[in-house]
Amino acid sequence: MQFLRRFKEFAVRGTVVDMAIGVIVGTAFVKIVDSFVTDIIMPPIGLVLGKVDFSNLYINLSGGRFQSLTEAKEAGAVTVNYGLFLETIIHFGIVAFATYFTILQVNRMKKVPIESMSSKECPYCLSNIPIRAIKCLNCTMDLHEDKEEQVPLEEMFIPTKINPRKSTTRRTIQINISAK
């Protein structure tokens, strides 16, 4: 019983239902593309190429002569159906083209989160800070736009490494206070 309950929970989840609807719509789309290629695209191409019917283009490997692919199939002849293969390649091209543009439109419709437009990530402590900040509120590091001025993370937190950008010489000031 636990198996059936878990299966029911899995089957009614949003992603599974969405996927099932996608498969159904995809199947219908394949039929539309098949009709589009076979009935609309291929006849004009065949007419331009000299009244060629791509569905009847084949190579007969059994040696007999047949008027069409249907006759060859009925006779049990072994054929290489390159015309049907060309139609299948055109089907694939149309489906790939339509899928590409569908994905472009879906990505365009996705909303950018408002928080990503108003904040950025500190490269040093990885906390979210306002986008216009020039100093991190959490780690107090300067956030320079010029990458050459920024100190790499390794040089910042490893005390044994000497930072060549900073002077290592110490200056001492001697103050003489004399009482008069």
TrEMBL record:
InterPro entries: MS_channel, MSC/AndL, MscL_channel. The chain crosses the membrane at residues 12-33, 82-103. The keyword Ion transport applies. It is found in: Cell membrane; Membrane. Its main location: membrane. Keywords: Cell membrane, Ion channel, Ion transport, Membrane, Transmembrane, Transmembrane helix, Transport. It comes from the Bacteria. It is a multi-pass membrane protein. The keyword Cell membrane applies. PANTHER family: LARGE-CONDUCTANCE MECHANOSENSITIVE CHANNEL, MECHANOSENSITIVE CHANNEL MSCL. Belongs to the MscL family. Homopentamer. Channel that opens in response to stretch forces in the membrane lipid bilayer. May participate in the regulation of osmotic pressure changes within the cell. This is Large-conductance mechanosensitive channel.
